[in-house]
Amino acid sequence: MNFARRFFAKPRTTRFRAVVFQVHLYAGLAVGVLALAVGLSGSALVFRQEIEAPPRAAGCAGGATLEQARASVAEANPGYRLAGVRFQEGRAWVFHLQPSGKAAKHGRADRHAAVHPCDGKILETREGKTAPVFFWLERLHYDLLADKPGRKVNGAGALLLLLLCLSGLVLWWPGPGLWRQRLGVKTAAGWKRVNWDLHNAAGFWIAGVLAVQSLTGAAFAYPQFFKDGLRSLLGGSKPAEPRIGSAVRPAVDLDAIRLQALAAIPGAQLTQIKLHRENNKPITARLRLPGDWRDNGGNLVHLHPATGEVAAVELFRARGLGARLVEGLDHLHFGRVAASPWVKYPLKVVLFLAGLAPGLLFLTGFLMWRNRVLVKRIRAGNPAVANHHATPALHPSPAYSPDRLRRSETAGV
After folding, report:
1. What is the pTM of this model?
2. Alpha helices in 173-235 (DSSP H)
3. 196-202: which pairs have CB atoms within 8 A and are 24 or more residues apart?
4. Which of 104, 213, 228, 276 is most buried by a 10 A CB count?
5. What is the C-alpha separation between 218 and 154, in angstroms, rounded?
């Protein structure tokens, strides 16, 4: 019987499974606490976009122009320059402001002003990119509160989590006659069996999602490696901004920029206008076309900052598959996709549960390791405890019969 047939029929008899078990055990012990912290913070961030969405803006007969709104925002925020505008259907416009001059020297944070598109009035102004609690959770999730070194450690942990997903699937397979039992939990059994079933069933059902999350998480830590790799394997190139040449003064007519961008890609919806701090860089408009899976689209229109004329157009669907995946890694990680609510929100619920899964798997796995290894070592190191649990040789206890031992091993004892 060759290896594949033997593993398929009787996986527990193969040395390969024994080696994979050791890898799975020690990788889990090594990355468990880190995965717990990153997973919980990730679950808390999944619905941040909905929680911090701009105020709703009901439709109106007329409407303010972007220039009117810009003037109102500039008057209310002296010492700040406009860095961009975000658009979301049925929501207020969000003007992104960056400190300049004395405000920049004093280290002030960026501001985000929500403006009603009907009358141009400012509805709210927020300091910073996000609320303090979400900012802290972001730092924990991405950098373990330790900036770049923490992000590298986090990336290594993500790769270990991927290894746990793959090795866990190998260990999950019990053979052709038992696999259905591994799909659920026998709640009527003892707590050790319930714990063992929960670890196996939860690991099987969530392994695919966790593998994707670990890969996209590792891409945040090692972006250049993953981006170059995806582009090389699947095709595509890095988008390049057109060169404007000599330094010029940026255009101020946002309404003309919006019209030019919409005319450059017919049928698209404008989601963002970005103005660079450097005057010789183009103004970039981002648009979403029907069928784009990124919630803010991946189509770019670069415009000359002085004349407002279109300098270049980049269609998302015209890029290679590798380039499209690179552009959407962060959106895939948090479920920020352009889809109907019937698809988008169930996906986010799955990602929310996936964030809780590492903690559950670490807890159940630790209890299994405690029952199998730790308790036995404690008993071996304490003669009184070992003698108390010893079984007389002439009168073997039914509780420690070979069949019972095999069942106990299955239950994680």
Report:
1. 0.82
2. 191-221, 223-234
3. 196/364, 196/368, 196/410, 196/411, 196/412, 198/360, 198/364, 199/361, 199/364, 199/365, 199/368, 199/412, 200/172, 202/357, 202/360, 202/361, 202/364
4. 213
5. 8
In this predicted model, what pLDDT tens digit does every residue of 245-262 receive, in sequence order?
665 555 668 999 999 999
- Count of C-beta atoms within a 10 Å radius of residue 329: 17
Q: How many helices (H) and strands (E) does the chain have?
A: 16, 8
Q: What is the mean pLDDT of the chain?
A: 85
- Cβ burial 174-202 (10 Å sphere, 16+ → b, else e): beeeeeeebeebeeeeeebbbbbbbbbbb
pLDDT score recorded for residue 394: 36
Question: What does the pLDDT look like over 61-72, one tens digit per residue?
Answer: 568 899 999 999
Residue-wise pLDDT tens digits, 200-239: 999 999 999 999 999 999 999 998 898 888 888 887 777 6
pLDDT at residue number 268? 95
According to DSSP, residue 268 is labeled -
CA-nearest of 54, 372, 42 to 196 is 372
Dihedral, CA of residue 156, residue 160, residue 163 and residue 164, to nearest 10: -160
**At 40, is the secondary structure helix, strand, or coil?**
helix
Residues in the chain: 413
Of 115, 17, 132, 39, nearest to 72 (Cα)?
115
Least confident piece of the model among 30-34, 124-128, 251-255, 356-360: 251-255
Amino acid letter at 90?
G
Residue 261's closest CA among 302, 306, 296?
302
Spatial distance between the Cα atoms of 378 and 34, rounded to a whole number of angstroms: 26
DSSP state of 370: I
Structure tokens at 193: 């069996």
